[in-house]
Amino acid sequence: MPTTTPSFLSPNPQRYYYHQPIKFHHSSYTPSSATTCTMPHWPRMEIASSRHRRKDKVLVIMGATGSGKSRLSVELAKLFPCFEIINSDKIQVYRGLDITTNKIPFHQRNNVPHHLLGDVDPSHGEFSPSDFRLHAGDLISDISSRRKLPIIVGGSNSFLHALLVERFNPESNVFEDESSPSISSDLRYKCCFLWMDISFPVLSEYLLKRVDDMFDSGMVDELAEFYKPGSDNRTGLRKAIGVPEFDRFFKQYPPAGPIQDEVHNPMREGAYQEAVKAIKDNTCQLAKRQIGKILRLKRAGWDLRRLDATEAFRSVLMSDSHGGDGGGEEFSDIWKKQVLEPSVKIVKRFLME
């Protein structure tokens, strides 16, 4: 583990202007004898010989944007206090735009250590899959050496692939380049994959609601402050969904004065709604691409344990349509039975392997 922090990594901010799209009721669920991590043979084993070392264990929570990955990771980390979370969302690694990028707020982390979440200085340009492989790999080594277990959490499958495969070619994009070799199932860690899945019609409807919640929480003000005329929106944090869509709006109507007054000006309402629609469309398209990549990883032989959260998220949408509190206790009950409890069983078996 490097003794100094690389220049493009910056201290993680302690304050987030973040919405809570689902009004979660925190579960009091406690699995029998699961709240301690008693592993007499921890995954980072002693060197068996000069040539062989047993692989470090890694828990991976994957899924499309908006599928509840962060919630599950924090709940598991509270039940198994030896867990630490490493973010694998390639936009959330950057500092800034906390509403736009949907970072989990500090107060909802429940004192669980989070790494590479808002740590990268966006002024240093692109944080590549190779960068992620290097720095997340160092974090895994450090966490494992302290007899704790890393949870990799995020929707960026290109980052997951770069980190986890035994041999990674930074010049090849296995998800987009048809001439690239097939995805390898030879992994450099002993992995347990939890795949958060939601039927796409339900997920799409929820994502539309989430975008509305983001705007209610001040996303436009955040984007207006971030706006810089003439910037390149093809790299780093500026690739975040919301930045290029509203850059076009701000280019036509430069922000000045109270931004809410500006965007709801009747002369500008059409352009504003066009930007909002583009964000919603692009968010749903992102989710569709992410699901496609996950299916490719599964076909390549990655052992993904599917957790179906469809009914839990449907309860959120049904409650919202009836003027409820976003799912509340009904959501929590379904989530516990269909997502949390199955996850705990899988993780307990994984820890004892």
From TrEMBL:
Family: Belongs to the IPP transferase family.
Keyword ATP-binding: yes
Molecular-function annotations in GO: AMP dimethylallyltransferase activity; ATP binding; tRNA dimethylallyltransferase activity
Protein name according to UniProt: Adenosine phosphate-isopentenyltransferase 4
The species this protein was found in: Pisum sativum (Garden pea)
PANTHER family noted in UniProt: ADENYLATE ISOPENTENYLTRANSFERASE 4-RELATED (PTHR11088:SF86), TRNA DIMETHYLALLYLTRANSFERASE (PTHR11088)
A GO biological process held by the record: cytokinin biosynthetic process
Pfam families cross-referenced by the UniProt entry: IPPT (PF01715)
Gene Ontology CC terms: mitochondrion
Keyword vocabulary terms for this entry: ATP-binding, Cytokinin biosynthesis, Nucleotide-binding, Transferase
